[in-house]
Amino acid sequence: MKVGVIGTGYVGLIQAVGLASFNHEVIGVDIDTSKIEKLKRGISPLHEEGLEEVLKKHVNKNLIFSADYNLLKNTDVIFLCVGTPQDKDGKANLSFLFDAAENLKRVLDKKEEYIIVTKSTVPVGTNRKLKEIFKGFNVKVVSNPEFLREGKALYDFYNPDRIVLGFENEKDEKLKDILVNSIYKPFKEKNVPFVITNLETAELIKYASNAFLATKISFINEIAKLCDKVNANVKKVAEGMGLDPRIGKAFLNAGIGWGGSCFPKDVKALIKQFEENNIEPILIKATDIVNEKQLEYFLEKIENYYKDLKERTFAVLGLAFKPNTDDLRESRGIKLIEKLIEKKVKVKGFDYVEKARENARSYFSLKENLIYGYNVVILDDLYETVKKVDGIIITVEDDKFNSENWQKIASLVKEKVIFDGRNILNKENIESLGFKYFGVGI
Ligand code: UGA
Question: Which pLDDT score, from 0 to 100, does residue 206 have?
Answer without folding.
Answer: 98
